[in-house]
């Protein structure tokens, strides 16, 4: 698992350099580009971002429904 985080960290640094120099958002601040670099798969592949958003929405709705049943 440590290797996964190391590899992902390296890809975040590469994405950060790309976003800072070559991206259409290169005029944005460093931390804005860092935030985009952390979630770079969703930025580079918009369909993946929609999938992640859909999964998160399902998790939140399920948590709300399950929390409501406990009361």
TrEMBL record:
Keywords of this entry: Membrane, Transmembrane, Transmembrane helix
Top-level taxon of the source organism: Bacteria
Residue stretches spanning the membrane: 7-23, 43-66
Protein name, per record: Uncharacterized protein
